[in-house]
UniProtKB/TrEMBL annotation:
SUPFAM superfamilies: FAD/NAD(P)-binding domain (SSF51905)
Entry keyword annotation includes Transmembrane: no
Coiled-coil region list: none
Protein name, entry field: Uncharacterized protein
Any GO MF annotation of the entry: flavin adenine dinucleotide binding
GO cellular component terms attached to this protein's record: endoplasmic reticulum lumen
Keywords, sorted A to Z: Oxidoreductase, Signal
One biological process term in Gene Ontology: ERAD pathway
Domain of life: Eukaryota
Length: 251
């Protein structure tokens, strides 16, 4: 093979690699929301990719909730045959045409275990062939407009210095981060993300929990039998989801 032919081949390979950095749609995050969007993009035959910084889909549930039990209900029997009605009582299944991808086939528990949801999400991605690029963390997201065509593309950088481009960017990376207190004495507090979940560590102790949401009550319930007292402090009254119709409030 001549050096000129070899040079042409190298140039072509370089062009192919560069082309692989562009998609019409990029979804940042491969949790439940990202996977659901990925399914619809796949079904519509779109050029897309889900970018996930971890090695598995729905990686949030590898650790949370800390005590392993979900607060999303899995009511398998409603006495009705209406699919839409039954889905209103199934808070874990994602939408698809595959009847095997209903969460009722993964757990019989009304409040399932988080590992069961992890298994379900992994199967959802694999069975539906959703395009996920793992170990990809992006930053420096920006827009660029072509002065001639007036068309806009989104650009972002991954951890390896590659620039990724897309026409439509969808962020599905989650809604919340751990709250870090700023008051004096914060160095003596522990965050929900790393506090011990072993009830023996609270034996005979008096515990103060800052917050009165689902995480706070999850911890309180798990250690209640080991403590002297549990004081829960919040900035507002407890809001119950059955009254507010907001799933983020206390269930």
């Amino acid at each position: 093979m001549t050096s000129r032919v070899l040079m042409v081949l190298v140039t072509l390979v370089g062009c192919i690699q560069a082309a692989d950095k562009y998609w019409d749609y990029i979804v940042v995050g491969a949790g439940p929301g990202g996977l659901q969007m990925g399914h619809f993009l796949q079904k519509a035959g779109r050029n897309y990719v889900l970018l996930e910084r971890n090695s598995v889909v729905a990686s949030f549930f590898q650790k949370y909730p800390r005590h392993d039990k979900l607060i999303s209900i899995n009511k398998r029997h409603t006495g009705k045959k209406n699919t839409e009605f039954n889905l209103r009582h199934d808070w874990n299944s994602l939408l698809s045409d595959d009847k095997s991808l209903l969460f009722r086939h993964y757990s019989k528990l009304f409040f399932p275990q988080r590992v069961q949801l992890l298994d379900y999400m992994a199967d959802y991605q694999k069975k539906l062939g959703i395009n996920v690029q793992f170990h990809t963390e992006v930053s420096n997201i920006r827009k660029e407009t072509n002065a001639t065509t007036n068309k806009t593309v989104f650009l972002m950088d991954d951890q390896n210095g590659n620039t990724l481009k897309c026409k439509v960017l969808i962020v599905a990376s989650g809604l919340s981060k751990p709250v870090k207190p700023t008051f004096e004495g914060r160095e003596f507090t522990e965050n929900y993300s790393n506090v011990s979940i072993n009830p023996d560590d609270y034996e005979g102790k008096t515990v103060v929990i800052l917050g009165r949401g689902n995480s706070a009550f999850e911890l309180a319930e798990s250690i209640y039998g080991s403590t002297n007292f549990i004081h829960m402090i919040g900035r507002s009254r407890v809001r119950l989801s059955w009254a507010t119709h907001y799933v983020g409030d206390l269930r």
